[in-house]
Amino acid sequence: MLNQLIVANYAIAERVELQFRQGMTTLTGETGAGKSIVLDALGLVLGGRADAGAVRHGAKRADITASFDVSRIPEAQLWLENHDLDDEHECILRRVISKDGRSRAYINGQPCPLADLRELGGMLMDIHSQHQHQSLLQKDTHRKLLDEFAGAEKLAEATRTAWKQWHKTRQRLSELQSYKDENEARLQLLRYQVEELDGLALGENELTELENEQAQLGHAETVLRNCHQASLLCSEDEPSAASLVQQALQQLEQLPVEIPQLADTLQMLNEAQIQLSEAGNNLRHFIDDYEANPARLEEVETRLSTIYDLARKHRVTPETLGELHTQLQSELDELDGGEGSLEKLEADVETFRDEWQAQADALTGKREKAAAELDNRIAEELAQLSMPSVQFVTRLARQEKAEPAPTGNEDIEFLISANPGQPARALSKVASGGELSRISLAIQVVVAQTSTIPTLVFDEVDVGIGGGTAEVVGRLLRQLGQNGQVLCVTHLPQVAAQAHQHLFVSKFSEQNATFSRIETLNDDGRVREVARMLGGVDMTEQTLAHAQEMVQKGQATHH
Question: What three-state secondary structure class fits 86?
Answer without folding.
Answer: coil
